[in-house]
Amino acid sequence: MILLAGAFPLLCACSSGRPDATTPKSSATIADSAAPPAGSAAGMPSAAVPQMSAESLLRGHVEEEKAAQELKADFPKLQQIASLSPKTHKSLLKNYLWKATGECPASTLVEVKPVPGVLTGKGTVKVHEKVYEKLKTVGTRATQRGLAIEVVSGHHSVKEAIDEWNQALIDAAIRVIKAAPPADQKEKNFVAEIKAAVGEDRNPKEWEKNVCDVGRLGGWMVQVQLVTVTAGGAKTQVLVKGGADGDRFSKEMLESTYWDKPKGKNYRMLAELMSAGSFVRQCSFPSQFMTSPTQDSTWRCKEGTESWDPPNRPLPAWQ
């Protein structure tokens, strides 16, 4: 997503695919390690020890006096927003811009290594160990068609996810404000329009207690490319591009692009291959996939909790 889909999936996403029967073990570990012991030096009785949720230990709001340090290259853009729309600037700082204050445990993550039918792009890509096994299943299916899955990205750290959210929010804010009449810019708070443009599912505010066990933070979401390969397994042509430059769909164009246009066959082929490993695509980002606890004989995508595909669409007749 991009499935922050992830999926943004990530983005989903952003986007948050949930593995089978997941329990928030790692989140509980974070919360337990952060809670002060009973009878601490402060003399606070154990019953009065404040309990912090796991997700609250991972992020906090950006403080205005430290915004330049936290936002770095995006800070000049935030200053531009302050000049264009002071009310929007104040609201963004108070409620919607975040900083990372912790990280999820990485004990379940493994590095994706090339195997038959699975390639890796530049840099190190890590996923949940169970996802790697699912990718190997996908690779076996891909080799039978003379294709391969190239994994572009997987696990995101809390800092990466928050930096991505902040950047997307600030960029969307500038676009929305500049598109408004000059008279409205100084007087109106554009947060509602900005949130709609970015997608609330990517907002760190919406993280749940098991956030470290699902989606990109848990290593359960991947961005991939569908590529052709030589007999020796070397990549030759990209059929479906992933990553930041990958295609995006709106709900309105899904039918005409994903199903009807000639290139749609490649999108559907990728979805078919990934389904061999129980991956489901993110509706708005055809190269972002998440794991799902259920699979059926339809080709439904998932965007948050809804599908954009007509229900019970039959499988395409693959050529």
At a glance:
The protein has 319 residues and is α+β, with helices and mostly antiparallel strands. It has helices spanning 25-34, 67-71, 75-84, 86-95, 129-143, 158-179, 182-185, 191-198, 254-260, 264-275; strands at residues 59-61, 98-100, 109-111, 118-120, 126-128, 147-153, 221-229, 235-240, 279-282, 285-291. The radius of gyration is 21 Å and the shape is globular.
Describe what you observe in this structure.
The N terminus is likely disordered. A hairpin with a 2-residue loop joins strand 9 and strand 10. This protein has two domains: 163 residues, Muramoyl-pentapeptide Carboxypeptidase, domain 2 (2-Layer Sandwich), CATH 3.30.1380; 98 residues, no CATH class. With 319 residues, the protein is an alpha+beta fold. The protein is 32% helix and 15% strand. Strands 4, 6, 7, 8, 9 and 10 form a six-stranded mixed beta sheet that branches. Strands 1-2 form a two-stranded antiparallel ribbon. Strands 3-5 form a two-stranded antiparallel sheet. It has ten helices and ten strands. The radius of gyration is 21 Å and the shape is globular.
